[in-house]
Specification:
The complex is a heterodimer of chains A (161) and B (797). With 161 residues, chain A is mostly beta strands. Chain A has strands at 3-5, 9-16, 21-27, 34-35, 52-59, 67-68, 71-78, 82-89, 91-92, 97-98, 101-107, 125-126, 131-132. In chain A, strands 1, 3, 4, 5 and 6 form a five-stranded antiparallel β-sheet that branches. In chain A, a hairpin with a 7-residue loop joins strand 5 and strand 6 (67-68). In chain B, a hairpin with a 7-residue loop joins strand 28 and strand 29. With 797 residues, chain B is an alpha+beta fold. Chain B has an eight-stranded antiparallel β-sheet with strand order 23-14-18-17-25-26-24-27, sandwiched between helices. In chain B, strands 7, 8, 9, 10, 11, 12 and 13 form a seven-stranded mixed β-sheet that branches. In chain B, strands 1-4-6-5 form a four-stranded mixed β-sheet, with no helix packed on it. The interface between A and B is large, with 44 and 73 residues. Strand 13 of chain A pairs parallel with strand 21 (437-438) of chain B, so a sheet runs across the interface.
Amino acid sequence: MPFTFFGRWAPLILSTGVTYVERARVAGSIASNGPITGPIGQQLAPIDGPAWQVYLEYSTDGGVTWLESPATRDPVVTPTDGLLVALYAFYDPTKKLIEGFLVHFIYLNPVINPPGPKQPPFGFTLPPDSFRPQPPIAPVPTRCGCKCGCSCRPLQYKRAL
Amino acid sequence: MGIPQSQFVPWTRKHDKPGVPLIPAAQSIMYPQSLADIIQICSTRPPGQRLHAAGSHWALSYAAVSDYTFIETHDWYNVVPAMGRTLYDVVPGCMSSTFLDELNVLTTDPALAAIPVYFVHFEAGKRIYQLYAELDVGDGANSQSLCGVMKSQFNNASFKGSWGFATLGGAGGQTVVGALSTGTHGGDFDRPPVADSVLALHVVVDGGKHYWIESKQFQFTDESKLRALYGTAQYGGPSNFEVIYDDTVLRAAMVQVGRFGIVYSAVMRVQRQYGLREELLLDEWEKVQGLIADPNSSLFIKPFKTADGDKIPQQFLQIVINPIPSTNGTTHICGITRRWTVPVSTLKSSPLPDVNWGGGNPAGRRELVGNIVQQYSPLLNAPLFSAAGQTVGYSPNDDGITSFDLFDAACADANFMDGIVSGIYTEIDKFLSNNAVAIGGALAGAIAAGLGPGIIALAPWLAAILALLALFLNSLRNDGSTVGQALNNLRAALLGSSNPEQRAAGILVWRAIAAEVFKSQQKAQTYSAISYAVMDTHNYQDISCDVNVRSMEVFFDAADPNLLQFVNRLLLFEIDQEFASGYSVAGYISLRFCGQSNATIAQEAFARTCAIECSGLADEIGSSQFVDYAVKLALDPNIKGILHWGQQNSSTQAEVEFRFGDTPGNPTGPLQQWRAVLARLTNNGQLDGFSSAFTRQTGLEIVQPTISSFTITVPPTAASQSCTVAWDCTKNPPETTFAFEVSPPSGSASTVPNLQASGSLAVAMNQTGSYTLTLVASLDRNGEVRKASQTLVVAFP
């Protein structure tokens, strides 16, 4: 089953698989139909179109014939790329391992997926030894301040939504 | 007496900014008092003066906004009496004897072990809290009621006592009909939303014709009795009334956003009153999000074990996320609320005195419904209760004492922030003295453990922030700001600097404060109370939090991975806007789960639906940006969320068709079914009085024109050298255009454009052979043109 994308996305191939000859093929785009090719780990030229499809396929005869790979679509949000969609083939749920083709598509719509800050946000960190236990807290007196049995209770808070 | 009305007065919604009405001078507002009034309004509507029903004014969308005349079923200002009667002329007056017999058997034959149900018929202006109060009292004392009839006819007393809604949204201030017309829901994942409890609707359409629309599968009325009741002269006579027993029509009418017409009344199925146990625990979104897709995860299947050892299954789940992050931007606190049904008999008693109507004293009853103050209030057309719609949300302590709690206090004014900000001030002061933070403190919550100096580098800026906080506290104690205004002042002070380090220090402190505010609202708590006291959490004394609100809600299949990434992308947006622009949201993201609705265009379109509500106080800069972004993200076709009809909703016709079907290329699906019912009730859109800017924007309109007839009235002869054709296309929206094409046996075709919807035309013929005559009806909706055509082939001798 093909996966449909809407708009402009940039592919990034992370793995071409280990068992078979595999590929990702685009159809229905404005100008990028055909197999996605390019170096692994490098963001490739964007693919655009109102609605276009990606097929993950594998071949057992060296690329003469192509079969549809068992594939998964997994949208992800990362601090650097924002919204991206991972497509991968031959996922082994027992090993929790992707054994086939893995490609990320980074969404290039600046309204929906605006680029984050050019520099990483300030890191709010402290060395572990700077986190210290709270000092002991003295018992809180009842609100009315009486020392004997008292009907006053601390206020209860609640969810309010 | 004429129908009360006003002209050129402001019309606003509950959540709009006070003093800034949405419509400064509404052309006309009418306040019908009866079915006859509504029929009169709809039958005497001047051309061009469209109508739309408005109920409680709680909708945040433009769904209730009329092009011209607003028809108020419950006056926003509580001056004109509401159409809020509970009716007995259909339930039980028009119930069939067969149905009553079956109902009697079902409740008296133990072998059937039927779940007790009851039926209530009410006018469209009745608010939810009014109805749950009346249901709680029960109507056994009224001999005209179904309970009274079952007692007198069958000596069956099973229907005495209290009844309740099977589910509700989070508030009771809406009219029941308004809530169900827009698909309002709660968080009960084991059942559909409230609209699915509807068994019949009485709808008046443009032109004044009125329809009783009832389930065929669950028919309970006798048609002849309905005709005798509503087919009378005061309602326009027998020909002005139609009874429709059809589940397809009812499903379409359940959620119709006011487009079909005005709902005069509704019949709902209710259930025996029950109690609810609620548990709220704090957690982290990043830890729980992976459990949402699995209906068997611990989020959904935590049982409650009673004192007797019985295990009660969980029925409700809500996850409320603080959009402002913790732990160096890597985590988000969330409150997880679960609920279980418990018998009323197991509830603690309220510490308040018993109610004066003899209903006993389970927790929450006195607090949320209270005494009957007036048996009949002329303003409500119903009993007046002392507490219904009057109180803060129920929030009991261990002894059942409910109080004006922290958040309720927050909504009275912004001074609740004093303690929180003062606490943070002290924490910063201590940090500056020893470069350490206290585990469990607010500051520590905003920080992650890591190598390097980290926030120690921000020390000079944190020292400057101490002065800002002192100034803020001084100001807070001396002005009457709303929560939103106070938060915006604080945000501006902390995040407003253009210096990156100072802004970073401000963000750190802002996050620490936000976490404390959130925890104050979502504090761990467990309690049990009568159903409505747990479900209706609205603070009716709120004068600060629930005004000038921006809110959207989007619906997903709970197993759809887009759901999680919608939330995560929104959370990243908040982080980015804090650093990039110094803006931040004052609000929340809430996930609630519910079952699939039968209503044709309900947003609850999936067996396990997740509704994500994103809300913020518009007084704070960053909230509107946050909510607007959420709407755009939801509407993106790659995310494909379904927006709530009653909240911020900028869906276009194409976006609605993408989700509900009936696209030009594939005219099938739920929207096609819904439009077919609209066509049936409005002469295929000819009656367009309930069309509005919102329904036209979203495509809740007739899109497909029709041709009723196209015939040759005078055939051609050699002598006349012409023929005459006639057509009737009146059953179409007024925007429909018509053209006539003539293709002679040879030569080019000619077109006659801009024809009337009905008429006749003489076609000249001077060639021997077959002429092709085609009538084309075209309708352009938002640039989407659909056509209907019929062709006649005429042989010229």
